[in-house]
Amino acid sequence: MARRKIIAGNWKMNMTPSQALKLVEELKPLVVNDDVDVVYCVPAIDIVPVVEAVKGTNVAVGAENMYVEDSGAFTGEISAPMLVDAGVKYVIIGHSERRDYFNEDDAFLNKKVIKAIEAGLTPILCCGESLEQRELGVTMDWIRLQIKSDLANVSADDVKNIVIAYEPIWAIGTGKTATSDQAEEVCKGIRELIAEMYDQATADAVRIQYGGSMNAGNAAELLAKPNIDGGLIGGASLKADFGKVVNYNK
Ligand code: PEP
Fold it and tell me: 182 in the Ramachandran plot: left (φ > 0), alpha (ψ -120 to 50) or beta?
């Protein structure tokens, strides 16, 4: 079954609202590709202007985070219904930076996944091993644990529509990319896990991205692998290079 590729930028804590608008304008002609879904995951303060700026284009907007409650006394947090009302379609959940710096554990991330789906957002659920785990040979054990916990009580129909991003921590923002074979091996392992947890149809439908120093130079090779359905791109999403990643097949 052919899965549509999905190329998402993760802007992280970059781009003031005015810088964001400039970047969207610069990228507009470069990110047109009818064969792929294109997403900009942007800082909360950029969501409203960026949603407005991409109207009428092929770009959807994602959030980088959300809270697990709909409303209330949670100073500083943003809820899934708020994101939906603002025009957001995707939300990154469980990025390694949030797991590490903000102590987000799998039980909490599972609540986020469930809340995002309930609200009508598509989670981009991140998982990935540290360099130490890779060297110890426990990469797949670790990722299986993350995904099993993060998807607890999520139905097969819902899993078919989510996006999973495999992001080896040692490759994020370091310029070190996993080789296409290393990335494919884990993405294949994730698909096998989904088949085990659910069924083959669900595994065939779920889209699995690779993330970790993906750029214009390595995207085509990574995206040619049968189990890599897209990319989650940090650094290279903030420049014209992103257009080349989106058009990896041209
Ligand atoms: C990311 O932050 O999800 C990421 C993959 O970053 P980079 O592309 O900069 O490694």
Answer: alpha
Token duo for residue 180: 């296409």
What are 44-61's pLDDT values in tens digits?
999 999 999 999 999 999
Burial state string for 193-219 with b = 16 or more CB within 10 A and e = fewer than 16: bbeebbeeebbebbbbbbbbbbbbebb
Which amino acid belongs to residue 42? V
Q: Is 173 in the pocket of ligand 1 (CB under 6 A)?
A: yes
Q: Does residue 95 have an active-site annotation?
A: yes
Give the integer Cα–Cα distance in Å for 59 and 150.
27
Q: From the CB of 213, is ligand 1 less than 6 Å away?
A: yes
* β-bridge mates for residue 211, sequence order: 232
Q: Residue ranges of the chain with pLDDT lower than 70?
A: 1
